[in-house]
Design brief:
- By secondary structure, the chain is an all-alpha fold.
- 73% of the residues lie in helices and 0% in strands.
- Helix 2 runs antiparallel to helix 3 and helix 3 runs antiparallel to helix 4.
- The two termini are 29 Å apart.
Length: 227
């Protein structure tokens, strides 16, 4: 996600930014939500898992990897919804373009996690529509607060995601190199996204807001690991 002031200034308009009626915009968002929650998205880059040879995992290790990768997939569904919600109410087209392009980039993570889940004979969260709709509403609220607060929300979200990916790297079986390769690349990307949001002028969020975000994320992780 490229959010630096210079990048935002020079970023060409996203194809979703056009002279559209409210109904057209609603249909675009409904289409994106449907594709995101049903797995109808494709990665623009090859999965990092492809650099590692397949390995047969013991049942216990496979189950752990499956649960953790389902959590990561759920997080990417939420990221799509957050960015789309923020972009919908962004104050200017440059900010909106940056957020929409961020969502496009995060599609790679979404597709990689889903592909790895399929390899593990696992499934995505059965509550995907709930995660998407709830996150979209949160994104709307963040965007309505103003662009600097919206960027602050991006920075804090990415910081918290980076922390939970660090936790996953400590829990994933060492022999599951394919899952670990995906998480390592995601971790590097999220840290970069947070830094770019900060450089673009993100406003630091109040401590109570950060704590609330963390509690909501804890619930999502707990539930999606199991369902």
């Amino acid at each position: 996600m490229v959010l630096s002031p210079m990048s935002i200034e020079n970023t060409p308009p996203h194809p979703d930014i056009r002279r559209l009626s409210p109904l057209d915009r609603l249909l675009i968002e409904a289409d994106r939500a449907l594709k995101t929650t049903t797995g109808a998205v494709a990665a623009g880059q090859l999965s990092p898992a492809g650099t590692e040879p397949p390995v047969s995992l013991p049942a216990q290790h496979r189950k752990l990897s499956e649960g953790l990768m389902r959590v990561n997939h759920t997080g990417e569904i939420a990221a799509q919804a957050l960015y789309r919600g923020q972009a919908l109410v962004a104050r200017n087209n440059r900010q909106r373009t940056a957020l929409l392009k961020a969502a496009d980039e995060e599609q790679d993570h979404l597709a990689w996690c889903e592909a790895r889940l399929q390899e593990l004979n696992g499934h995505t969260s059965l509550l995907a529509p709930f995660w998407y709709s709830g996150s979209f509403l949160i994104g709307l609220a963040a965007g309505l607060a103003g662009d600097r607060w919206s960027l602050g929300f991006v920075e804090e979200t990415e910081n918290q995601v980076s922390a939970h990916l660090d936790d996953h790297l400590g829990r994933l079986p060492e022999t599951d190199r394919r899952s670990r390769a995906v998480v390592e690349k995601m971790r590097a990307d999220e840290a970069r996204h947070a830094a770019e949001a900060r450089e673009a002028g993100a406003a630091p969020l109040p401590a109570p807001v950060r704590k609330l975000m963390n509690r909501v994320a804890d619930v999502m992780r707990f539930v999606s690991f199991r369902i």
